[in-house]
Amino acid sequence: MGAPDIGGLSAGGIDSDSIGLVSGDLDDISGNIWGDTWSIQSGATYGSASVNPTTGVWSYDLDENNAAVQALDTGQTLTDTFVVRLQDTGGSDTQTVTITITGVPCFVAGTLIETAIGPKPVEAIRPGDLIVTRDDALQQVRWVGQRTVHADALAAEDRLRPIRIRRGALGGGLPQNDLLVSRQHRLLVTGERVLQVCGTDEALLPALRFLDWPGVDMVPPDGPVSYHHLLFDRHQVIIAEGTATESLLLAEEARNRLPLRALTEIDSLFPGPDARRILANPARPIPAPQLQKRIVEHGPKDDSFDAPDNTPAPRLKRQIS
Question: What three-state secondary structure class fits 162?
Answer without folding.
Answer: coil
